[in-house]
């Protein structure tokens, strides 16, 4: 059946007021959406952060009176409504529509990320099975893509790999499928470690080849290759620790860095690494190099 959809452009401070008001006037669902593709990373415990520019979408039964609805909403909120748009939308198979939005993606020359409901476009390629999920990388964000493309370009035979801030485990699993005999992952979130284990199992990775650790439990054993796709601030503050985890002559790739943050991060590693030119993708960068 069709629906009446109301879209409001709000600030985070307005979120609770308008969410409550929309539910009060009969919304059957209320959804917050990012209006400007602004990422949110690692929110503080107990918080529900919103983007600085947020769209609030509410669905109502199709026979809802649009004029009366907006008047009632304005009355509840005590003033003129923020910028808004109302339209009638047709019903659809929302699960199917969501799944159709995720297609296999190629990174570099060999590597594909393939959702479980798709056949691999190139069965003989390196195919990593990974379904979209919450919070952890699936390859769709430029920072993950930059790291996957870098891994695809590396020779990983006989190399140990560390995925620092492993999330879904996508980078470590990609390294293993690309030829690394051993990889480890570490993350501050226990849910990330569980996701990494599940995704490794889905890709036929022996758990012995991919142990995952909370930071306090991580063995201080330097690796041949270290990838860290986290945030610029932690990359700078943790530079001594991350540097110590790379063997002499080993390789490092860092991402989760906005273009305007690149020089600060490069400066934190320049004394220990011969750094490559910064790689840029959609306003995000990757910094890589070889440890002296």
UniProtKB/TrEMBL annotation:
<feature type="binding site">
    <location>
        <position position="229"/>
    </location>
    <ligand>
        <name>S-adenosyl-L-methionine</name>
    </ligand>
</feature>
<dbReference type="InterPro" id="IPR050078">
    <property type="entry name" value="Ribosomal_L11_MeTrfase_PrmA"/>
</dbReference>
<keyword id="KW-0687">Ribonucleoprotein</keyword>
<comment type="similarity">
    <text>Belongs to the methyltransferase superfamily. PrmA family.</text>
</comment>
<comment type="function">
    <text>Methylates ribosomal protein L11.</text>
</comment>
<keyword id="KW-0489">Methyltransferase</keyword>
<feature type="binding site">
    <location>
        <position position="165"/>
    </location>
    <ligand>
        <name>S-adenosyl-L-methionine</name>
    </ligand>
</feature>
<dbReference type="GO" id="GO:0016279">
    <property type="term" value="F:protein-lysine N-methyltransferase activity"/>
</dbReference>
<dbReference type="GO" id="GO:0032259">
    <property type="term" value="P:methylation"/>
</dbReference>
<keyword id="KW-0949">S-adenosyl-L-methionine</keyword>
<dbReference type="InterPro" id="IPR004498">
    <property type="entry name" value="Ribosomal_PrmA_MeTrfase"/>
</dbReference>
<feature type="binding site">
    <location>
        <position position="187"/>
    </location>
    <ligand>
        <name>S-adenosyl-L-methionine</name>
    </ligand>
</feature>
<dbReference type="Pfam" id="PF06325">
    <property type="entry name" value="PrmA"/>
</dbReference>
<dbReference type="InterPro" id="IPR029063">
    <property type="entry name" value="SAM-dependent_MTases_sf"/>
</dbReference>
<dbReference type="GO" id="GO:0005840">
    <property type="term" value="C:ribosome"/>
</dbReference>
<keyword id="KW-0808">Transferase</keyword>
<dbReference type="GO" id="GO:0005829">
    <property type="term" value="C:cytosol"/>
</dbReference>
<keyword id="KW-0689">Ribosomal protein</keyword>
<protein>
    <recommendedName>
        <fullName>Ribosomal protein L11 methyltransferase</fullName>
        <ecNumber>2.1.1.-</ecNumber>
    </recommendedName>
</protein>
<feature type="binding site">
    <location>
        <position position="144"/>
    </location>
    <ligand>
        <name>S-adenosyl-L-methionine</name>
    </ligand>
</feature>
<keyword id="KW-0963">Cytoplasm</keyword>
